[in-house]
Design a protein that fits this description.
The complex is a heterodimer of chains A (about 130) and B (about 210). Chain A contains six helices and no strands. By secondary structure, chain A is mostly helical. The longest helix of chain A is centred in the middle third of the chain and has 28 residues. With about 210 residues, chain B is mainly alpha-helical. Chain B is about 70% helix and about 0% strand. Classes of the chains: A mainly alpha (about 130), B mainly alpha (about 210). Chains A and B meet through helix 1 and helix 2 of A and helix 2, helix 3, helix 4, helix 6 and helix 7 of B.
Chain lengths: ~130, ~210
């Protein structure tokens, strides 16, 4: 009400009301004091937990970004897939490993016989010519 | 007011202000201190206004506490200049809710058999007897009479007139702030206030203090 004309009645009424406020008993003051402190404690009751909750989406997004970057980097430069020849090589290796006949041959390996047979066949060719 | 200094001693500071909760953010610490100062400045007047409306000390205390809590929870981040009209708006809503509830309860109780001694079980509290800021006896007697006459006259006012008068005269809100607190136009505030002053003057004369 500052800057406004105040009648003597209003001025007196204010004086009386302010006096009545000053004379509020100690018990009520104490309870108001407690109420104020409760309100201030409620201002941010669990701020650290609240903060960690708000940071969770950001942390999740960062983790997802790192994962995507790792996958893209693993696939080679510029995101290119491995050459087709490499895939074929891998398939051939797998075929050898799973082929039972090849393994049987390897078990009965006689190196000297095969060397003799080769030399004989080369000799026959020379004699024919 | 000197009595606030004694109430707000470091031993009585809430956790938010002395380190149990979070003192890492200086901005929030400053905000908590500002809110504490604001609430300490309005709590007694707010109690008086609530008491005039509700005519019951415990209900008035509850209303003020609820208003404090809601302001702290929902509006602490708002600029400090907005706190006062917001606080009184919240308080007014709370008072209205309590009055409505009381009306409903009164209707229900009217159908039930009377039972007396509601206040008999209230515990004795020596603090209630402690006098505060006691003026000289003769002056006190005059003030007592003027206070009683004014409080009785205020009780007879319509609620909106009482509210406009107390917010303007006791809390010192301007017309715009009072309009915000009362949830009405500035014109309505002026009308309610003018009628309140007229009615009180008619009952009390010039109210000598």
């Amino acid at each position: 009400m500052s800057g406004e004309t105040v009648s003597p009645f209003e001025r007196n009424a204010r004086t009386v009301l302010e006096q009545s406020v000053q004379r509020i008993d100690a018990r009520t003051r104490s309870r108001l004091n407690q109420a104020r402190h409760k309100a201030l404690e409620a201002m941010s009751p669990q701020r650290p937990r609240w903060r960690s909750l708000t940071l969770m989406p950001a942390a999740g997004a960062l983790a997802a970004a790192v994962l995507v970057a790792f996958v893209l980097w693993g696939r080679g430069p510029h995101g290119a897939s491995p050459p087709a020849a490499l895939d074929a090589q891998h398939a051939e290796d797998m075929e050898l490993l799973t082929d039972n006949d090849s393994i049987d041959l390897m078990e009965g390996w006689d190196g000297s016989f095969y060397e003799w047979a080769t030399s004989q066949s080369e000799g026959n060719v020379e004699s024919n010519t | 007011m000197p009595e606030f200094a004694t109430l707000a001693s470091p031993y009585s500071m809430p956790a938010a202000l002395h380190g149990d909760t979070d003192l890492t953010d200086p901005q929030e610490q400053t905000q908590a201190r500002a809110l504490n100062q604001f609430l300490a400045g309005v709590e007694l007047k707010a109690f008086k206004i609530a008491q005039a409306a509700l005519r019951h000390e415990d209900d008035a205390l509850d209303a003020v506490q609820d208003a404090m809590l809601q302001l702290a929870r929902a509006y602490a981040a708002r600029p400090a200049e907005e706190w006062k009209p917001l606080f009184y708006r919240i308080l007014e809503n709370r008072i209205r809710d309590m009055q409505r509830r009381r009306t409903v309860r009164g209707r229900i109780m009217a159908w039930l058999p009377l039972r007396g001694g509601d206040d008999d079980d209230e515990e004795f509290d020596p603090l209630a007897l402690a006098a505060s800021n006691d003026p000289q006896p003769v002056r006190r007697l005059e003030l007592d009479e003027a206070m009683e006459a004014l409080e009785q006259a205020l009780q007879r006012l319509p609620r909106r007139q009482q509210q406009a008068f107390l917010l303007r005269t006791l809390e010192g809100l301007d017309v715009a702030q009072t309009a915000t607190a009362m949830g009405c136009s500035e014109g309505s505030v002026k009308t309610h206030y003018f009628r309140a002053v007229q009615a009180l003057r008619a009952q009390l004369g010039e109210l000598h203090t």
